[in-house]
Amino acid sequence: MTDNRTDEQKQLENDLNQRIEIDMKPVESGNILEIGYKDLVLRVKFKGGGLYNYYEVPPEIHEAFIEADSKGSFLSKNIRGAFEYERIN
Predict the structure, then answer these.
(1) Beta partners for 33?
(2) DSSP alpha helix (H) spans, 1-89
(3) SS3 35
(4) How many CB atoms lie within 10 A of CB 65?
(5) Which pTM value belongs to this model?
(6) Is there a contact between 41 and 74 (Cβ–Cβ < 8 Å)?
(7) What is the pLDDT of residue 50?
């Protein structure tokens, strides 16, 4: 799949994604600082500073992520690669 958007279009979309208000909750994790969820968008803030949106994430995946003993392992096994995502910072 080729992305035909211009750099300006990508930046505008990125700016809009950052403006989506999602209430972030701190979590206990070695790599993940906060997790938020709204309207099928899962937002993950990493301790290293990366902030990502994962799209079309069902509520049950979000709930299982929050409840997982290892957030990083759950993300790797159940979210990364399964949903479209975008780094927004």
Answers:
(1) none
(2) 7-19, 59-67, 71-74
(3) strand
(4) 21
(5) 0.80
(6) no
(7) 94
User: Contacts for 3-7 with beta carbons within 8 Å, 24 or more apart?
Assistant: none
* Residue 30 phi, psi (nearest 5): -70, -30
State which amino acid sits at residue 54. Y
Rg (CA), the chain: 13
Q: Reduced to 3 states, what is the DSSP secondary structure of residue 83? A: strand
Residue-level pLDDT at 20 = 78
Q: What single letter denotes the amino acid at residue 40? A: L
Amino acid at 64: A
Which segments of the chain have a pLDDT < 70? 1-3, 5, 9-19
Amino acid type, 63: E
CA torsion, ordered 66, 31, 81, 78, to nearest 10 deg: -30
Count of other CB atoms within 10 angstroms of residue 21: 6
Tokens matching residue 20: 């989506």
Residues 89 and 18: their CA atoms lie apart, in Å, by 8
